[in-house]
Write a structure and sequence with these properties.
The protein is an alpha+beta fold. Helix content is about 45%, strand content about 15%. It has seven helices and three strands; from the N terminus they run αβββαααααα. The protein has helices at about 5-15, 60-75, 80-85, 90-95, 105-125, 130, 140, and strands spanning about 25-30, 40-45, 50-60. The chain has a three-stranded antiparallel beta sheet with strand order 1-2-3. β2 (about 40-45) and β3 form a beta hairpin. α1 (about 5-15) packs across α2 and α2 (about 60-75) crosses α5. The protein starts with 6 loop residues before the first helix and ends with a helix. The structure holds FE2/S2 (inorganic) cluster. The site of FE2/S2 (inorganic) cluster (FES) has 10 residues, from α2 and α5.
Length: about 150
């Protein structure tokens, strides 16, 4: 396995950061992958437009766990606008790469963050689509390659 995965992937897979739930989360996003059946749930606590806390629960493969772990580190303390700019490509680069058949796992992380931010707006009666954009369907995520 190690031959296929970078040290960073192995590090975040074996020692994932920010795992768990946030009790007083004000945004929760859940994204599933149609084909592999893996599920990622992202909890955010937004304060004054900044991601004050973020945690995740991933029932999925090692790459999904590693991408969610590093993605939480990348958006912690960032503004919502900055968090929305996080692409799955940036996540893969931060992990020093993923095998091509595992790229779709990183899309789960990007989309779970967007879903959590969309939920944050929805809870305030604001239509999230003009801000967050359209979330990808589980089938679209499965088909995703860089
Ligand atoms: Fe399902 Fe990675 S194989 S998310």
């Amino acid at each position: 396995m190690a031959a296929f995965y970078s040290e960073k992937v192995m590090d975040h897979f074996t020692n994932p950061r920010n795992v768990g739930e946030i009790e007083n989360a004000n945004g929760i996003g859940e994204i599933g992958n149609a084909k592999c059946g893996d599920i990622m749930k992202m909890y955010i606590r937004v304060e004054n437009g900044v991601i004050a806390d973020v945690k995740f629960k991933t029932f999925g493969c090692g790459s999904a766990i590693a991408t969610s772990s590093i993605a939480t580190e990348m958006i912690m303390g960032k503004t919502i606008e900055e968090a929305l700019q996080l692409s799955n490509k940036a996540v893969v680069e931060a992990l020093d790469g993923l095998p091509s058949h595992k790229i779709h796992c990183s899309v789960l992380a990007e989309q779970a963050i967007k879903a959590a931010i969309a939920d944050y707006y929805q809870r305030q009666g604001i239509d999230p689509e003009p801000i967050v954009g359209k979330l990808q369907s589980a089938e679209e995520i499965e088909a995703c390659h860089l």
